[in-house]
Design goal:
This protein is of the alpha/beta class. It is built from 14 helices and 19 strands. 34% of the residues lie in helices and 29% in strands.
C-alpha cells in the first residue's frame, strides 16, 4: 500500500516538473493567452499589434521582454511590467501597464483635407492613434510619415513636421503637425455674427492674421486673445465660437489654391446682467468689501473680463492682509429667462501669515544690508504681499531707492516665499545670480 502511495506521489511530482522548470529556467512555451491590466483609454487590439506576439507562438522570457520593450519605446506607457504562468507547454502572459499622459493632436496648416481624413490616414499606419499623441515618441515620426502618401496623391510636394507646443487657447500642450513648403496665406477672415463683423476693434486686430501664412494655431490664438474676450466684455458670457472653416479660392484640385478665406462661426447667445454674489466662508473681509472689489451693480451688463479681474482683486486683497493661501471658487448660475447670472463664491481664507525672516544669497554684505533697510518690516508684522512685490520690482530694476549709489552686480533674482502654516510665519528667500 505504501509503495502505491509513493508511486502516485512520484507521478504527481513529475507532472509538475515542466511548469516548475519553465518558471525557474524559462525555455519556450506555446502562447495561449495575452492579458492586459491597466488599459484605460487605449484599445486592446492596437496595443496587441505593437506587442508583436501571437497566440500559438513558441515564446520564452526574452520574447516577452522584447515585447515589453516595444511597448515602452512607443512612449504610450509610463511603466510596463509582465508576469507569466505556464501549465505544461502552454503559457499565459499578463502585461501590467500604466498609460503615459498624452496630448491632443492639431493639424496646423493642412487645409486640403479634413481632420477626419488626416486621422484616418495616420490610423492606417499607426492603429493605436486616437486623436492624441505622446509628448515624445518614435510614433510621432511614423504619424508624420503616414500623411506623406495622402499629400503626394494631391500633388503636394511638402514635408510633414511635428512639434510640441503650448495650447494657445487652454492649459497643457498640443502635438502640432504642419507641412513645410506650402505657400498659403490668409486672405480674409469673416465672422458669422454681425457684432464681431462690425466691430472696429476686431477689424483692426485682424492685421495679426490676415496676409500672414495660414496657421490654425495662429487663428486659435487670435480667437483666444481677441474674439472671446470681446464677447465676454459685451456680456455674451456663453458665446459659442465654432471651429474655423477654411474656404479655398481657385481650383481646389490644384496643389495650392492661392489665398484662403477663413470663416468663424459664432453664436453670441444672450447678454447677461448682474444677479449678485453670495459669499460663503469669508471672515477677514466683509461682504460689502468683497462686493466693492468685484465692482458690479444690480442689473449691470456683466463684463466677463472685469468680473474675472474682480476675483483676482479679491485674492490680492487677501494677500495684502497676509492671507497668502486664500482661494476663491465662484460658481455661476445662469437664469436664461431673466438673462441674469449670479455667483455663489466659496472662500477659503487659510491662515494669516506674519513676517519671519529674510535669507539673501549671492550678494555682498553691504548689498544685503541695503535690501533689509529698504524692506523695513519688523518680524511678527502681518505680511503684505503687495509690499513684497514692490521690493521685487525695485530689485529687478536695481533701483537707487534700494541700493543708492552702491554698485551691485547681478543678472537675475530668484525669489521665494517659504510659508509655515504651523507657526503662521513666512520667510523671504532671495538668490542673486
Amino acid at each position: 500500500m505504501s509503495r502505491n502511495i509513493t508511486s502516485l506521489a512520484l507521478i504527481l511530482l513529475l507532472a509538475l516538473i515542466p511548469s516548475l522548470s519553465f518558471a525557474q529556467q524559462p525555455g519556450k512555451g506555446k502562447l495561449t493567452a495575452i492579458e492586459f491590466v491597466g488599459l484605460k483609454t487605449l484599445a486592446e487590439e492596437p496595443v496587441k499589434a505593437i506587442l508583436g506576439l501571437h497566440l500559438g507562438d513558441l515564446v520564452g522570457k526574452d520574447d516577452l521582454q522584447a515585447a515589453a520593450d516595444r511597448l515602452v519605446a512607443t512612449g504610450l506607457f509610463a511603466t510596463v511590467t509582465y508576469e507569466f504562468r505556464s501549465r505544461g507547454e502552454n503559457l499565459t502572459v499578463t502585461y501590467r501597464l500604466e498609460e503615459a499622459p498624452r496630448v491632443p493632436v492639431l493639424f496646423d496648416n493642412i487645409p486640403w483635407f479634413t481632420d477626419a481624413e488626416l486621422s484616418d490616414a495616420i490610423r492606417k499606419s499607426v492603429p493605436v492613434f486616437d486623436g492624441t499623441a505622446p509628448q515624445e515618441s518614435p510614433l510621432l515620426d511614423d504619424m508624420a510619415a503616414a500623411l506623406g502618401p495622402l499629400l503626394a496623391a494631391r500633388g503636394l510636394k511638402v514635408t510633414v513636421e511635428h512639434q510640441l507646443l503650448a495650447n494657445p487657447s487652454g492649459d497643457g500642450s498640443l502635438q502640432v503637425f504642419r507641412v513645410e513648403g506650402a505657400a498659403l496665406k490668409i486672405g480674409r477672415v469673416e465672422f458669422g455674427d454681425p457684432l464681431a463683423a462690425q466691430s472696429p476693434y476686431l477689424q483692426q486686430k485682424l492685421e495679426a492674421v490676415v496676409g500672414k501664412p495660414y496657421s490654425r494655431l495662429a487663428i486659435d490664438l487670435f480667437l483666444f486673445e481677441h474674439v472671446r474676450p470681446f464677447y465676454q466684455e459685451q456680456g455674451c458670457l456663453r458665446a459659442s465660437i465654432g471651429t474655423p472653416e477654411i474656404r479655398l479660392t481657385g481650383n481646389p484640385n490644384q496643389a495650392f489654391a492661392g489665398d484662403m478665406g477663413v470663416f468663424i462661426p459664432i453664436q453670441p447667445g444672450s447678454v447677461y446682467h448682474w444677479g449678485g454674489a453670495q459669499w460663503i466662508g469669508n471672515q477677514a473681509l466683509a461682504v460689502s468689501e468683497l462686493n466693492a472689489l468685484i465692482g458690479a451693480q444690480a442689473s449691470d451688463v456683466v463684463n466677463g473680463q472685469r468680473i474675472q479681474a474682480g476675483w483676482d482683486k479679491v485674492l490680492d486683497e487677501y494677500a495684502h492682509r497676509g492671507y497668502l493661501d486664500a482661494k476663491v471658487d465662484p460658481q455661476s448660475a445662469y437664469d436664461d429667462a431673466k438673462h441674469t447670472v449670479a455667483y455663489q463664491v466659496h472662500v477659503s481664507e487659510g491662515p494669516q501669515y506674519r513676517y519671519g525672516d529674510m535669507l539673501v544669497t549671492g550678494l555682498s554684505v553691504l548689498g544685503e544690508k541695503k535690501i533689509r533697510s529698504a524692506w523695513n518690516v519688523p518680524a511678527g508684522a502681518i505680511f503684505d504681499r503687495a509690499k513684497f512685490e514692490e521690493l521685487l520690482a525695485g530689485l529687478e530694476k536695481k533701483s537707487t531707492a534700494i541700493f543708492g549709489d552702491l554698485p551691485v552686480h547681478y543678472e537675475q533674482v530668484g525669489h521665494w516665499l517659504r510659508t509655515n502654516p504651523d507657526t503662521r510665519t513666512v520667510d523671504i528667500l532671495l538668490d542673486f545670480k
